TrEMBL record:
GO terms for biological process: carbohydrate metabolic process. Transmembrane segments: none annotated. Gene3D superfamilies: 2.60.120.200, Immunoglobulins (2.60.40.10). SMART domains: PKD. This is Beta-glucanase, GH16 family.
Length: 537
């Protein structure tokens, strides 16, 4: 009877296709011999419309073409069984079990130890850190592909102030091992997870913004480690990527289960992940093994700095006072280590004192083989100090691609190269984030992408003068804008911030932090009303 009905339907409606089970399923395997663990599978079958591969680590892959490359990461020479399924119209399928023997040279036992503590370890959002969730570009430019605040970033406990996002800080991420070689992951989201708005449909969400939704993340997932293949400079990453089985994710749902470990210590982890539906976006997540408590951070110490020990009021027109300032000239090595685009000069076109202010002007022009010129002043060898209050009243340039900075560098940098010498950035600004300024500290273990940085909003940075200040003692470095405290760093004898530093004032163009320069940019200046240093009795 069923056969009769099927024939009848086919006669009456020729648009219906006959459902045929895929036959003659064949699978070939191309095993690389370079120790990478990569194997390319090619499946073919009659009447198949797509293929599915199921691997022994719990991961699966769907490949309509029948071609899929898998990296096997268990160290050594190992044999694996893979189930390959060919699907036809209507979901009918046939399957085949194949075996492959492949060698992988990759292992990262230190990462397993740090992730798990040798057993089981719980991680949390590093909510007390600035930039604990940020986003930047993912492209072919290694100078951009590590900075998590390139497009946007969070201030400490920022998600706690957004009603739709408060669930994030309830998350617990547990990594475990039983042998020191295996690695598993559990995600306790206390019933709800934070979703990128473009994935709201996964949970039938309606909000146009990133929001928390009820979501089941229960269960243990296997974790595999593999070499990183991202376009991130080698010195800015660990070189290890972890993949979570069964659609596992860490904290923020962006449609991926693969996370690159940029840095990892016993208490801090910086992850980079590419958004599943937008390969041009890289998200950055900072985790900590010590659960942060809002309001429990460091409190500002009270210090008095009554003695003005040095100042430049910029009252005399002409070149800057040679008793206070000298210059860095040219483009340095690799654009001053930041791939900057400008050529620094000491010409009055780029640096001059007039009308009671110092003007450092960045401008577009062809000069010495570069497309931009600017100036970088420093007090090196002239005015160097340990501790005190540093005040700079300034108005910043504007234009996408500008990167003004007021900062200090350890005076021993020639014998103690950066980051060993230490760097204190009192103020940094980039034109693409017009209303935000940063204060940052670079030192061993926390430099470049791992620097300790915090941002604050200043609405009129380019139209009005503001006072940028740092108070620096043996125990703290505090950062202010117009006497409003926004960043506290705990200093101690293990840090390089207990010796002489000198001041640097500059306007860079482009580079790792400045980014692309707007095609319409012509010129813009940072104006400095005064620089003052106060110290204690």
């Amino acid at each position: 009877m069923l056969l009769f009905l099927a024939v009848g339907c086919q006669d009456d409606d020729n648009t219906l296709e006959q459902i045929l089970v895929p036959q003659n399923l064949e699978v070939t395997m191309d095993v690389t011999e370079d120790g990478s663990g990569n194997v390319t599978f090619t499946a073919t079958a009659d009447n198949a419309v797509t293929y599915r591969f199921a691997f022994p680590d719990g991961t699966t892959a769907v490949a309509p073409s029948g071609v899929y490359t898998k990296r096997f990461t268990k160290s050594g020479l190992n044999t694996y069984q893979i189930t390959v399924m060919a699907y036809g119209q209507g979901g009918v399928n046939s399957s085949k079990l194949v075996e492959v023997t492949v060698e992988s040279d990759f292992s990262d036992p230190e990462a397993i130890e740090l992730l798990t503590g040798g057993g089981s370890k719980t991680w949390y959002w590093a909510a007390s850190e600035p930039n604990h969730l940020g986003v930047g570009p993912n492209n072919d430019d290694a100078t951009q592909n590590y900075f998590w605040a390139y497009f946007s970033f969070t201030e400490p406990f920022a998600l706690a102030n957004i009603p739709a996002a408060t669930c994030a800080y309830d998350d617990e991420f547990i990594f475990s091992t039983t042998t020191g070689e295996d690695l598993t992951y559990e995600y306790d989201n206390n019933g709800a997870s934070f979703f990128n708005r473009s994935y709201a449909s996964v949970v039938n969400g309606q909000s146009p913004d990133d929001s928390c939704y009820e979501f089941d993340t229960s269960g243990e997932r296997a974790v595999s480690l593999a070499p990183s293949e991202s376009v991130v400079a080698a010195e800015r990453k660990r070189g290890t990527t972890m993949t979570l089985t069964n659609d596992g994710f860490i904290g923020y749902y962006i449609g991926t289960n693969e996370y690159e470990i940029l840095s990892l210590t016993e208490n801090r982890m910086l992850l980079r992940a590419i958004q599943g539906n937008d390969q041009g976006l890289a998200w950055y997540i900072i985790l900590t093994a010590e659960k942060p408590v809002q309001g429990s951070g460091p409190q500002a110490e009270e210090d008095d700095f009554p003695n003005l020990v040095w100042s430049d009021e910029f009252d005399t027109d002409g070149a800057p006072d040679p008793a206070n300032w000298t210059y860095d000239l040219g483009n340095g090595q690799a654009g001053w280590g930041n791939n900057e685009l400008q050529y620094y000069t000491d010409r009055s076109d780029n640096v001059v004192v007039e009308d009671g202010v110092l003007k450092i002007t960045a401008q577009r022009e062809s000069y010495m083989g570069f497309d931009f010129t600017s100036a970088r002043l420093k007090s090196e060898g002239l005015q160097e100090f340990t501790f005190g209050r540093y005040e700079i009243r300034a108005k910043l340039p504007e234009g996408v691609g500008t990167w003004p900075a007021i900062w200090m560098l350890g005076a021993d940098y020639m014998t103690n190269p950066w980051p060993g010498t230490g760097e204190i950035d009192i103020m940094e600004h980039v034109g693409r984030n017009q209303n935000e300024v940063l204060s940052t500290l670079h030192f061993p273990g926390n430099s470049g992408a791992n620097a300790i940085s915090e941002a604050t909003t200043v609405e009129t940075v380019s139209s009005e003068f503001h006072v940028y200040a740092a108070e620096w003692t043996e125990t703290q470095i505090r950062f202010y804008v117009d006497d409003e405290l926004y960043h506290i760093f705990q200093n101690d004898e293990t840090k390089p911030f207990n010796k002489d530093f000198f001041m640097i004032l500059n306007v860079a163009m482009g580079g790792n932090l400045g980014g692309d320069v707007d095609a319409s940019f012509s010129q813009s200046a940072m104006e400095v009303d005064y620089v003052r240093v106060y110290q204690r009795d």
